[in-house]
Amino acid sequence: MAQIFTTQADARLRLALIVGAALVLLIGAAVFAYVRSGNAWAIGRPAAQPIPFSHAVHAGDLGLDCRFCHAGVERRTDAGMPSAETCLGCHERVWNVTAQFAPLRAAIARRAAVEWSSVSRLPDHARFDHAAHSQAGVTCESCHGKVQEMPRTARAETLSMGFCLDCHRNPAAGTQPAAAPAVRPHGLQSLRYEHYGVEVSPLTRCSTCHR
Ligand code: HEC
Ligand code: HEC
Ligand code: HEC
Ligand code: HEC
Ligand code: HEC
């Protein structure tokens, strides 16, 4: 059969195919590495805050309990944020003279809360509940890292769906042994269990975390 391409063109075509395939693999690997890295989830990057608040000073050095400022953690969905009055309980004397406390004054004048930026916020379609986790003995640290050592608050874990599921598939491993939860099937789940003997953990069901 007659040769359609010259040997040179043939070699160029082969080279182009090999280089093309290598590029596709390389770009794929780079995207994968980025998505799996902390960088994509802003791990370790503090957000701009109205006041340069330090957990290392207040929860670390001064040893204040987390619940002193985040009073909802054991009882509510939201951990909650301290009111300006909570800060003023100690900063009454300094707040008037230091510019960095101006947002506290403004918040009190507006009868509103200080507008802190969040480093943990989930997308609207996902649901989270602090009380359920506190009561099951999951420590703040397992999701927020060593906050008491942070001069500026930053995300310590991805808080991605994979992160949540890693623990929800086997919660006993992530909680304090004494408080290991009894995973109780309820509602439709318990029906399915009783009738068909099929057990699907409510903790890995989509509707547990998605509305
Ligand atoms: C004196 C009050 C105070 C204490 C005590 C305190 N916090 Fe905070 N916390 C704040 C303030 C103010 C912010 C918002 C500014 C910031 O993020 O640094 C905040 C923010 C946070 C955030 C980020 C929330 C978000 O939306 O991303 C986490 C997580 C957190 N605190 C956990 C803790 C933990 C864990 C402890 C105990 C070890 C603790 N805090 C103790 C006042 C406090
Ligand atoms: C229990 C008392 C207490 C409470 C409540 C408190 N602080 Fe403080 N704060 C202190 C003390 C004491 C220092 C000084 C620590 C030092 O200089 O080592 C301080 C230091 C600071 C500083 C300077 C930090 C630095 O890095 O130099 C800021 C800003 C601040 N606090 C903001 C706040 C805010 C905002 C709140 C409320 C969310 C708050 N504080 C609640 C006691 C308190
Ligand atoms: C199982 C993981 C997990 C644990 C344990 C956990 N948190 Fe959170 N926290 C989150 C997530 C996720 C968010 C973001 C919630 C959202 O966007 O709805 C959050 C948000 C917050 C916020 C932001 C404000 C708010 O009102 O919710 C604070 C403050 C906070 N957590 C403090 C704490 C403290 C203090 C503890 C320990 C007593 C704790 N968290 C335990 C995952 C966790
Ligand atoms: C270290 C372990 C751990 C991690 C990480 C974790 N959870 Fe959980 N979660 C639990 C346990 C244990 C329970 C069961 C509490 C119970 O049985 O009442 C639970 C329960 C829940 C519930 C059910 C609350 C209710 O209404 O009863 C929701 C919603 C939830 N988790 C969401 C999340 C989300 C979203 C994340 C990730 C941001 C997450 N969890 C990360 C351990 C974890
Ligand atoms: C333990 C809690 C939890 C369970 C169970 C869960 N998800 Fe998620 N899911 C999340 C969280 C948290 C996010 C948001 C992650 C982010 O982007 O910050 C998420 C994100 C998503 C997204 C958006 C795309 C993405 O990857 O960010 C989809 C789609 C999704 N989930 C589908 C599902 C389906 C389908 C199920 C059931 C098979 C399920 N989820 C079960 C916690 C959960």
What overall geometry do the principal axes of the alpha carbons give?
elongated
Task: Enumerate how many helices there are, as a single number.
Answer: 11
Mean model confidence by pLDDT:
86
Strand content: under 5%
The largest sheet is: none
Fraction of helical residues: 40-55%
In words, what does this structure look like?
The protein is mostly helical. The protein folds into two domains: 29 residues; 121 residues, no CATH class. It has eleven helices and no strands. About 8% of the residues have low confidence. Bound molecules: heme C (5 copies). The site of one heme C has 14 residues, from helix 8 and helix 11.
Short characterization:
With 211 residues, the chain is an all-alpha fold. The protein has helices spanning 7-36, 55-61, 66-69, 84-95, 102-110, 130-135, 141-144, 161-168, 171-174, 188-196, 206-209. The longest helix has 30 residues, at 7-36.
Fold topology:
Blueprint: H1 7-36, H2 55-61, H3 66-69, H4 84-95, H5 102-110, H6 130-135, H7 141-144, H8 161-168, H9 171-174, H10 188-196, H11 206-209
Helix pairs in contact: 4-5
Bound molecules: heme C (5 copies).
The site of one heme C (HEC) has 21 residues, from helix 6 and helix 7.
